[in-house]
Amino acid sequence: MTAWLKVLAVALLLVSGACVSAGTQAIQDTDVVSKIEVGKSTRSDVVALLGYPPAATHKDQGLREITWHYYYATAYPNATAFVPVMKAFTRNLNETTRVLSVSFDKNGTVKGLEQEQLPLPLQQVDPNARKG
Protein backbone atom coordinates (compact mmCIF):
# COMPACT_ATOMS: atom_id res chain seq x y z
CA MET A 1 0.00 0.00 0.00
CA THR A 2 1.43 3.36 -0.96
CA ALA A 3 1.89 6.19 1.53
CA TRP A 4 -0.89 8.37 0.13
CA LEU A 5 -3.40 5.49 0.36
CA LYS A 6 -2.46 5.03 4.01
CA VAL A 7 -2.97 8.73 4.68
CA LEU A 8 -6.33 8.63 2.88
CA ALA A 9 -7.45 5.60 4.90
CA VAL A 10 -6.50 7.26 8.19
CA ALA A 11 -8.25 10.50 7.17
CA LEU A 12 -11.45 8.60 6.31
CA LEU A 13 -11.39 6.85 9.69
CA LEU A 14 -10.97 10.19 11.50
CA VAL A 15 -13.81 11.84 9.58
CA SER A 16 -16.22 8.96 10.10
CA GLY A 17 -15.65 8.86 13.86
CA ALA A 18 -15.66 12.59 14.57
CA CYS A 19 -19.29 13.09 15.64
CA VAL A 20 -20.21 14.88 18.86
CA SER A 21 -23.64 14.84 20.50
CA ALA A 22 -25.20 16.12 23.72
CA GLY A 23 -28.59 16.14 25.38
CA THR A 24 -31.45 13.71 25.84
CA GLN A 25 -30.95 11.11 23.11
CA ALA A 26 -34.30 9.43 23.85
CA ILE A 27 -36.20 12.29 22.16
CA GLN A 28 -34.93 10.99 18.81
CA ASP A 29 -36.65 7.64 19.38
CA THR A 30 -40.21 7.86 18.02
CA ASP A 31 -41.22 4.77 20.04
CA VAL A 32 -40.27 6.52 23.28
CA VAL A 33 -41.92 9.84 22.38
CA SER A 34 -45.10 8.08 21.20
CA LYS A 35 -45.55 6.70 24.74
CA ILE A 36 -46.26 10.25 25.93
CA GLU A 37 -50.01 10.64 25.51
CA VAL A 38 -51.76 14.01 25.56
CA GLY A 39 -54.47 14.08 28.23
CA LYS A 40 -53.24 10.86 29.85
CA SER A 41 -49.51 10.92 30.66
CA THR A 42 -48.30 12.71 33.79
CA ARG A 43 -45.08 14.44 34.81
CA SER A 44 -43.97 11.20 36.48
CA ASP A 45 -44.54 9.28 33.24
CA VAL A 46 -42.42 11.76 31.28
CA VAL A 47 -39.63 11.66 33.89
CA ALA A 48 -39.65 7.85 33.69
CA LEU A 49 -39.23 8.01 29.89
CA LEU A 50 -36.90 10.99 29.43
CA GLY A 51 -35.57 12.00 32.83
CA TYR A 52 -35.79 15.52 34.21
CA PRO A 53 -35.62 18.33 31.62
CA PRO A 54 -32.65 20.68 31.31
CA ALA A 55 -35.01 23.67 30.94
CA ALA A 56 -38.59 24.64 31.79
CA THR A 57 -40.86 27.64 31.27
CA HIS A 58 -43.91 28.66 33.28
CA LYS A 59 -47.03 30.00 31.59
CA ASP A 60 -48.50 31.80 34.57
CA GLN A 61 -47.18 33.46 37.72
CA GLY A 62 -48.66 30.75 39.95
CA LEU A 63 -46.28 28.20 38.35
CA ARG A 64 -49.17 25.84 37.71
CA GLU A 65 -48.88 25.37 33.95
CA ILE A 66 -45.37 24.43 32.88
CA THR A 67 -43.54 23.38 29.71
CA TRP A 68 -40.49 21.13 29.88
CA HIS A 69 -37.88 21.44 27.11
CA TYR A 70 -35.60 18.58 26.09
CA TYR A 71 -32.75 18.99 23.60
CA TYR A 72 -30.49 16.74 21.58
CA ALA A 73 -27.72 18.29 19.50
CA THR A 74 -25.40 16.58 17.04
CA ALA A 75 -22.39 18.05 15.26
CA TYR A 76 -20.07 16.41 12.78
CA PRO A 77 -17.34 17.92 10.61
CA ASN A 78 -17.66 18.70 6.91
CA ALA A 79 -14.91 17.49 4.60
CA THR A 80 -13.72 21.12 4.35
CA ALA A 81 -12.88 21.08 8.06
CA PHE A 82 -9.80 19.05 7.20
CA VAL A 83 -8.56 21.32 4.40
CA PRO A 84 -6.52 24.15 6.00
CA VAL A 85 -7.32 26.88 3.44
CA MET A 86 -10.98 25.92 2.96
CA LYS A 87 -11.91 25.83 6.65
CA ALA A 88 -11.20 29.54 6.95
CA PHE A 89 -13.99 30.33 4.47
CA THR A 90 -16.65 27.67 5.08
CA ARG A 91 -18.65 26.22 7.95
CA ASN A 92 -16.68 23.41 9.53
CA LEU A 93 -19.52 21.60 11.24
CA ASN A 94 -22.95 20.32 10.27
CA GLU A 95 -25.09 20.91 13.34
CA THR A 96 -28.59 19.74 14.14
CA THR A 97 -30.60 20.40 17.28
CA ARG A 98 -33.81 18.55 18.05
CA VAL A 99 -36.15 20.09 20.62
CA LEU A 100 -39.06 18.35 22.36
CA SER A 101 -41.37 20.56 24.40
CA VAL A 102 -43.88 18.89 26.72
CA SER A 103 -46.61 21.14 28.19
CA PHE A 104 -48.48 20.21 31.35
CA ASP A 105 -51.76 21.55 32.70
CA LYS A 106 -52.21 22.67 36.31
CA ASN A 107 -52.91 19.05 37.36
CA GLY A 108 -49.61 17.75 35.93
CA THR A 109 -51.17 16.00 32.92
CA VAL A 110 -49.61 16.36 29.47
CA LYS A 111 -51.45 19.10 27.63
CA GLY A 112 -49.37 19.17 24.44
CA LEU A 113 -46.22 18.01 22.66
CA GLU A 114 -44.17 19.91 20.14
CA GLN A 115 -41.10 18.65 18.25
CA GLU A 116 -38.73 20.72 16.15
CA GLN A 117 -35.51 20.01 14.35
CA LEU A 118 -33.32 23.05 13.99
CA PRO A 119 -30.12 23.39 11.97
CA LEU A 120 -28.61 25.48 14.78
CA PRO A 121 -26.08 24.92 17.52
CA LEU A 122 -27.67 24.12 20.89
CA GLN A 123 -26.65 27.40 22.51
CA GLN A 124 -28.73 29.37 19.97
CA VAL A 125 -32.01 27.71 20.98
CA ASP A 126 -34.03 29.95 23.30
CA PRO A 127 -36.97 28.14 24.96
CA ASN A 128 -38.35 31.51 26.16
CA ALA A 129 -38.57 32.96 22.65
CA ARG A 130 -42.12 33.53 21.50
CA LYS A 131 -43.16 32.23 18.12
CA GLY A 132 -44.86 34.36 15.84
Strand % is 25-35%
H/E element string?
HEHHEEEE
Biggest sheet statistics: 5 strands, antiparallel
Could you name the CATH class of the domain at 25-73 and 96-123?
Alpha Beta
Short précis:
The chain has 132 residues and is of the alpha+beta class. It has a domain at 25-73 and 96-123: Beta-lactamase Inhibitory Protein, Chain:B, domain 1.
Structural commentary:
This protein has 132 residues and is an alpha+beta fold. It has a domain at 25-73 and 96-123: 2-Layer Sandwich (Beta-lactamase Inhibitory Protein, Chain:B, domain 1). The protein has helices at 3-16, 30-33, 43-50, and strands spanning 20-23, 55-58, 66-77, 93-104, 110-118. Strands 1, 2, 3, 4 and 5 form a 5-stranded antiparallel beta sheet that branches. The longest helix is centred in the N-terminal third of the chain and has 14 residues, at 3-16.
Task: Detail the topology: elements first, then pairings.
Layout: H1 3-16, E1 20-23, H2 30-33, H3 43-50, E2 55-58, E3 66-77, E4 93-104, E5 110-118
Antiparallel strand pairs: 1-3, 2-3, 3-4, 4-5
Keywords, separated by commas or semicolons:
elongated, 132 residues, Beta-lactamase Inhibitory Protein, Chain:B, domain 1, 3 helices, alpha+beta
